[in-house]
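User: Thanks for the earlier help. One more: NADPH-dependent F420 reductase. Can you show the sequence and predicted structure together?

Assistant: Of course, both are below.
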Amino acid sequence: MSAITIFGKGNMGQSIGDVFKQGGNQVSFIDSADPVENLGSIVVLAVPYNAALSIAKANQAALAGKIVIDITNPLNFETWDELVVPADSSAAAQIAALLPDSKVIKGFNTTFAATLQSRKVGDQAQTTVMAAGDDADAKQAFADALTDSGVAFVDAGSLKRARELESFGFLQMTLAAGEKIGWTGGFGVLK
């Protein structure tokens, strides 16, 4: 069992919290007005990209030694036509640069809140959480926290793979926003 702190109480934050609770973990939430204290060993940034950057900048000491899961897809929400990070980087890489003493993992960005709640992508596949990060022990702790949660876990590789996960998440979001797929659908990983 892990102690998990989630920044953000929106749809994604609540759905991620539910997944972790089903996995037998202790979950607490922090919103923008709450003090940042008593953080769990795993911290989830379930907030928009700019808010995640602000949290990282303001809480470097509090997040030191923690596994920090970045769920953001850094879209340009004015145009819905591009990511706002350089093509050779990612939101997760930028957060990792701000948190050199944390173990940053990209995760949950290729799932929708509805697919986390149902544990299924449409009627076809179990919801799969893909994770990219450079610390193997941190990724294993993340995977362990998802055991018995009803979702599958796939190690997508090093933190460099975060940019592909963010592109994948971007495509999925634009398809849903364009009503080409539903918010209960998306991409599934079949083994």
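User: Great, one quick takeaway?

Assistant: The first helix runs from residue 11 to 22.
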